[in-house]
## 1
Amino acid sequence: MYTVELAKLIGKMNLEVLTPDIDYEHIKICQPDVNRPALQLAGFFDHFDSDRVQVIGRVEEAYMRKMEKDHGIGILTRLMDYKVPCIVFCRGIDVEPELIQLATQKGVPILKTNKTTSSFMAEVIRWLNVELAPRISIHGVLVDVYGEGILITGESGIGKSEAALELIKRGHRLVTDDVVEIKKVSDETLIGMAPDITRHFIELRGIGIIDVKTLFGVESVKNTQSIDLVIKLEEWNKEKEYDRLGLEEQYTEYLGNKVVCHSIPIRPGRNLAIIVESAAVNYRQKKMGYNAAQELYNRVTNNLMKKNKANEE
């Protein structure tokens, strides 16, 4: 199970800490969802997910104000007994000093933001979904070509890094070389990024390590990129039958998500950078509704129908 530090959430969302005496550096969040404790404020704690960030908005605050003060404090005390990671008060709601003192005793951080409850929850859920997403690391190169994330895979030494370098020289952007960390942020989207230690570096056999950001500028690199297309490089095998039309898409799977995949045979003299660029543009055309292979198929079919009709006449 992946976790994210509460301190990182506080910094990312610019939250005000109302309980500075609590050492929250060791507190970790393991759930991407948040909870507005409506039923819990009414005393119903069945199926309560205490691992979630607890968010108090205008509705919850108005409900607590209608309670007797001791009863409201008692309910929140019971909530804190579940060792929730934190309680966030939205819309700049003022928090009673008694509650802050109680939270300090319980070791539950009280945080505050001026954002509206709905927008804060949406932002936190989106960010936590990315931070806590399932992930794997694979051997490959990820580049941004015309806005499409192209993952280049293949055996070591086949030419992935050289192809990436040529693409960078042609104005495209490097995300990562050698190791690609893939996160599944949704059932449709995979995000690729570089490990911190190798970010912006490329290894070229015979030359060594080069810093792409330093050599080609900040416009030549990118930190994250969705993975839209996989290009698998492999040695040319004259016995193998390669797809020459592309009528049917081939797919590969990462973390349960399917991604369009092209197998490209490597022979001396083939310009990999141009092939990758063409694959990216062709993929974009297909997303926009135009399929060149289907267009060729339709032309051939229509031509045969015309010939058959002419022969019948």
Note: The chain has a mean pLDDT of 89.
## 2
Amino acid sequence: MEWVRIAGALGLGRVHDCQAVTSGVMNLSWRLTTDAGTFAVKQLRDRTPDEIRVVNDLLPRLAGAGFPVPTPRGDPVQVDGSWYAATAWLHGVHPEDATLRDDLGELVGRLHVALATLCPPAPRRLADVPESAFKAIKTLGVYADRPPADDFDRSAAREIEWRRAMLAELADQRPADAELAPCGWTHGDLQPFNLLVDADGRVCGILDWDRLGVRPYGLEVVRTATIVYGHSLDRIAAFVRAYRAHVPITDAQLVDAADRRWWTLLTETWQLERHYEHDDRSCDHLLARRGDYLRWWTAHRGEMTEALTAG
């Protein structure tokens, strides 16, 4: 059996049970129970083994600093042409808005401070060149005239039509090319499927460190707050206040980060590319979900600014 060979290559012992992890979006992961314990095993799809080795070096040091991160189990291994990596299994559940306590902002702030100490020196500024409205309209147009064959095609056609119209109307609101600060090492994908909470709603696991990298702090703050808390402006405000108790970031930098995140949602086409160019349907649902949030955000940009800069 394939899993016997994978477990053997990873040094996990004799396999007793293997269950696919159905939560999440793009990764292929399994819960593997063996003589040695219970492990999360992931197939590496868009990260190299060397990138995962960097993460595996960092995670024990983060755990030593008190952060709830999984412990790596050995180096990535290759079996039948695919690469796999394993960590110890962390117990908990993925949070919903109502089950997550209001300590996430404080945790992310402390995490960014710790990463600045544990990782190599990072540039203080990073250049950002937002997508042009013209290019986004053109890319969306590539998919606009496809004959509808199923519900996704029909939903995509409606979304494409709305975004092209909005881009034409709001082209002058494209954020300027700029060097962004403050910057540092970040997780890169802090969202409910990469968090675990205990029965009291406290974060007890920060998972999936594949996107570890240097980014503007404001972009991670805004992305995390809007994905985790959605329409709850009060909770977004509380998240940002708690974060700013640890990392100095100005109102202007937060507002700029929000504008850039909003523009990214308006111009992104990667879900269409995955579906039509790579026959990958794992992210189909995100096109409509992010489109719905984009409509709400477009109608409430003033309120979002107030929430991000409150306190």
Note: The chain has eleven helices and eleven strands.
## 3
Amino acid sequence: MSELFSAPPGDDPDLAAARGGDDAAFTRLVEPLRAELHAHCYRMLGSAHDADDALQDALLRAWRGLAGFAGRGSVRSWLYTVATRTCLDLVEARGRRALPMDLGPASAHAVLGHTPLTEVAWLGPYAGAGLGSGPAGPGARYEQREAVELAFVAALQHLPGNQRAALLLFEVLGFSVAEIAAIMDTSTTSVNSALARARRIVAEKAPSPSQQQTLRKIGDARVREVVSRFAQALERGDADALITLLVEDVTWSMPPLPNWYHGLAAVTDFAVSVPLTSCGSWRHLPVDANGQPAVACYLRPGDEGEHLPWSVTVLTLRDDRIAEVTSFLGDEHFALFGLPRSLP
């Protein structure tokens, strides 16, 4: 068995106190694991808001069931069992989350006046401030930040819940097949089958190299320069400056709007027609979203007043240029990143 299921510390006073009903002791047990458990829920569900709900529900289930915790494994493995099963219930009830490219072909020209599709469950951005840069376990294939990258989380949404859970538990968290079978209450044969199918789908839909590999190759200084130049081009309405940052097959999407753009000509037409000329005055703050460079975009439609939250725009880089722009529209995303409600 891996160290994730190593014998629990039988003399742990917090565990003993929590079993006796001490909620402060339970909080102390959970707190060191909260960030990674929340990230696991986000990977499973594709939404930070859903991850909040799932983690709260999972911890409530864990607290209520703590007296029955058999102690055959670690508290960490037991909490992942509860969190995974909670997420599987939600996946079954709510289905998968989408990006605009999952719904239909790209638009060749700017679409004006389009209406958000509120009936679609959209993929959302992730702050992930508490995540480490390395793997979560000794057997993990993915780094923690790699496993919240947009392409990876979007690929997971194409998997049924059991395949999603098996892949994450094995390749992101480093659990063994036997441990995953126990967590998911199934057989090792079923886990191996789910893993094989999940790997094929993710390999097709998640590009290589990962953003973490790309960002390390580019270097922090160049990444900051690209983000700054992108923001300045939008603020100045400078199409030429923006185009120099983009690859030829760039994409731009804006969930919850269904239209998206693919290729330099289509993206340029959209950028010139909408954000660069017709929206108003932009201001930006750099942020880290999904382990990738991003900007929080604030908009002032008129000539006076404050700039208000508009989108969290995540940039996917290829070499040192922008290959994907994903603008998550809506002020509800800003609280996730601890961003101000307005800019003067």
Note: Confidence is low (pLDDT under 50) at residues 1-9.
